[in-house]
Amino acid sequence: MAWELGGNMGHIVPLLAIARDLRERGHQVVFAMRDLANAGLLAREGFAFLPAPSPPRRRRPPLYGSFAEMLAGEAFPSANGAFVGALAWRSIFRAVRAEVLVADHAPLALLAARGTDLRTVICGAPFTIPPVGRPLPRFFKRTTDSAAREAKLLERLNGVLTVLRGPKLDAASDLYRADATAVKTVPALDFFGPRPEEHYVGPAPADAGDAVPEWPKARGTKFLVYLRPGAHLPPLFEALSRAHASVIAHVPNTAPALAKAIRERGAHLSETPLKLSELLPRCDAVVCHGGNLSAAAALAGKPLLLCPVYIEQHMAAAQAAKAGVAVVAAAKPDAKSFLERCEALRPGGAASRRAAAFGKEHAARYRPLGVAEIVRKIEALHGEALA
User: Between vectors from CA 382 to CA 95 and to CA 47, what angle results, nearest 5°?
Assistant: First the structure.
């Protein structure tokens, strides 16, 4: 299991759900991760883990204008860094005697796997898997140098592959041409789509924790809130209080003063991660940033209030709003704008009806998939590796 880029829990927890199933079916699983901050989750369940190679990167990355620019800045900052990182990954492959590589936002691992006997499975949210055979995506319409940056990136990658004696790439997006692909969403929420139908496995929700609090007594909408700290929190919880909402929330690393203020407004703020698989069916609406939880909520027929922070969250939020399952926070939200959006998500309202219809339309096709379909793809490739 390889993970390199992006937010920590949003990749570890879904991979952990896959790893549990694989282990139950008799397979050995080893993780290699660039950030070990939450590796305790793996240790508590008895999974082995290693630090993944990490080329030198900027301390505060700029606002990238394209996928190619992001890859060059975060995964392949120099020809030598890419080469040494790929060698390190190959050392990991040999040390653990890997047969299948499961990569979630792990482009350097994918580069290292080219020219080896490893079978490769790419899984993750749409943003982590640009479609092959096309130019890498631009993030902003105003980005004008993406083609030149992509050509430079392709030259760098092929220079590394020449030394590693791996097959060269015809296009930079071919780095993501794997033996199997598992995009954890539905086509209507895929802002990089369309893709081949067999690439979609639907959301693969996984529980980061076991907390299942009781809903606070209130006459309003039941909101499930899963956010990170930020300037959006005080006006959001003021609005939820004014809407008489019943709120269960998890906001990791909340400052004590803010946590106290949130609880004084009547919300249940859980200090430990929530068991989303139990709470999601019971809520009326979900507030999150626009990551993995948003697709799972949409499939469950729950309307969303999205507070995007990073570029991929903004893209996911725009697509969810286009699909009719979400409203998006204002660019500079205040309590009034949040209250308007919270009121729009009341049970029985237009947004709630649209979300319920969306879930009903897609649930039969995608709800049975998720983790089970990813495991099926991995086992099929493992069988090929042994044959």
Answer: 50
